[in-house]
Amino acid sequence: MSLTATDIHVKLGRKEILHGIDFAARAGEVTAIVGPNGSGKTTLLRAITGELAYTGKVQINGQDCASMKPHELAMTRAVLPQAANLAFPFTVLEVVRLGLTAGLASSRPDTSDTLPLQALARVGLTGFEGRYFHDLSGGEKQRVQLARVLVQIWEPVLDGQPRWLFLDEPVSALDIGHQLVVMQLAQDYARAGGGVVAVMHDLNLTAMFADQITLIDAGSVRAHGTPQQVLTNDTLSAAYHCKLQVNTPPPMGGAWILPQAAHLN
Ligand SMILES: Nc1ncnc2c1ncn2[C@@H]1O[C@H](COP(=O)(O)OP(=O)(O)OP(=O)(O)O)[C@@H](O)[C@H]1O
Ligand SMILES: [Mg+2]
């Protein structure tokens, strides 16, 4: 089971932002979307998740997303946006419960707090449930939002169908320890049969946790493949307009990217 997006064009205002993107991800894997600021990563994620108008075709588990009802989509995939602020003074538990409500049209009418509390524990926020969301630090807020998203599609596979986590920069506000916790959580979700699509800026974390990488540049796909295929000196240096050196340190064997200079020339 997989996710495919074919020939995706998105126009915002008068400008075409995505110029015919083909993207694919498999359940059981973590697929990372990387690329420079403004290259179209968030736009692609929002098109795939049906939050933006697009032309092209998006299929999830073999079904055309355009024909799926909102509750079917909510049961199949959950989305962590790049920035998620709240207008109301919710407690942490209330925020996480929102995920439960989003997924409630399911066969699992669980309205207890068991799942939200389990999700908070997964992101290292046990004891935070009574705190006001507004009073949390940036990294704590990001992890609460992740707990909310997790609660929505807690089981990675439901009725034999994989469920999909879409994460837009899930570790951007996190310290290195929590970055590892969250990326491990994403990988565990995939290994349990779910699908994970994550927009990432940290290339080293991406090298550690992604099975496949799509590199977006100026609204088009510049490269797609395994970390070894995509994370090369030439591809990265050209996309990011700076000199980058990809190394392979023992004993981990994964790529390890070191910046060399601020500008290419
Ligand atoms: N509503 C809009 N109207 C016009 N242009 C927009 C709009 N929203 C986004 N854009 C432009 O679309 C381009 C892609 O934006 P997008 O948010 O997808 O980038 P990104 O790759 O996620 O970048 P970042 O790494 O900074 O999050 C940017 O140049 C942005 O300025
Ligand atoms: Mg973005």
From TrEMBL:
Keywords: ATP-binding, Hydrolase, Nucleotide-binding, Translocase, Transport. It is an enzyme of class 3 (hydrolase). InterPro entries: AAA+_ATPase (IPR003593), ABC_transporter-like_ATP-bd (IPR003439), ABC_transporter-like_CS (IPR017871), P-loop_NTPase (IPR027417). Residues 3-243 form the ABC transporter domain. Pfam families: ABC_tran. SUPFAM superfamilies: P-loop containing nucleoside triphosphate hydrolases. It comes from the Bacteria. GO terms for molecular function: ATP binding; ATP hydrolysis activity. Its EC number is 3.6.3.-. PROSITE patterns: ABC_TRANSPORTER_1 (PS00211), ABC_TRANSPORTER_2 (PS50893). SMART domains: AAA (SM00382). Part of the ABC transporter complex HmuTUV involved in hemin import. Responsible for energy coupling to the transport system. This is Hemin import ATP-binding protein HmuV.
